[in-house]
Each structure stands twice: as structure tokens, then as C-alpha cells.
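Molecular record:
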Amino acid sequence: MSKTITHELSYDAPIDAVTAMLADPAFREEVCRYQRCVRYDVAIDVSGETKKVRIDQWQPTKGMPSFAKKIVGEETNVVQEETWTSPTHGDLKMSIPGKPGDMSGTASIAESGVGTVETVTLTVKVNIPLVGGKLEGLIADLLLKALKAENKVGRDYLSR
């Protein structure tokens, strides 16, 4: 069983500005702060057109249903890894170390009218009998909320 989400992040900026933003550790750190991460570590390695992004973040689980808190605890560690093989295509992988399941997918960036759209597609899979489907739905909702937060921070970032 799995759950897939697709979300478009639109920016009123040229494609070069959006790809530069995604390669800026200050932007990634700002997104972590906006999401109220307890702690985080951002690493970005750029070699030619290949860009590797790794964000190791700890988020509070306040407000999560009790069945989920029993599995992840009072805060949860999420490791986000992105491998951009070109300025406009990246493979995404997210994991919760020590917990069953993962999230993976792609991001693509394209010009759209006078701006740029980043399309993110992620599939969530949790390997826990009985509650796996519920957790997949919960994680998908949290990922969608995180993508909306990133889009808001990105729009603010690009307007400066």
C-alpha cells in the first residue's frame, strides 16, 4: 500500500532564480525555521550541473494523533535527500531513520508564463500492518503542508 501526492509550487521569478534559490543553504535553513524545526543541518554539494541536497531535520510531533506519536515519539527526525541531475530535474528521497517506511519521488522545474513552476511528486510507503495506511495519509498531509510552507518562504525569498 502507498499514497502519492503531487503539488505545484509557483514562483513569480525566472527559472534561473528558482534553481539558484534551491541551491542556497540560507533558503533551505529559512524553510526549516519557518516549519519550526527543533534543529536541522543543511548540506548542499554542487558539482557542475549535479546538485546534492541533504537536510537532516528534527520536528516536534505536537498535535499528531496519539497512534502516530507512539511510533515516532515527541519529535521526529526526517532526512531529506535530493539529487538534481540537471538544473530542472531532481530525484527526492525522504526517510525517518529507524522507522519503517520511506518517501520518494521527483521534482521538476519549468517556465510557466512569466514565472516558474516546480512540480513535486512523492510516494509515501509505511510498512506497518493495520495502521500503515493511516500513517501514509498522515505523512502525505504533513508533506503537503511542508511543500506549501516551502513555497511561501520561496516566494518571500525571491521577492527580496
Strands lie at 3-11, 39-47, 50-60, 75-86, 89-95, 102-112, 115-125.
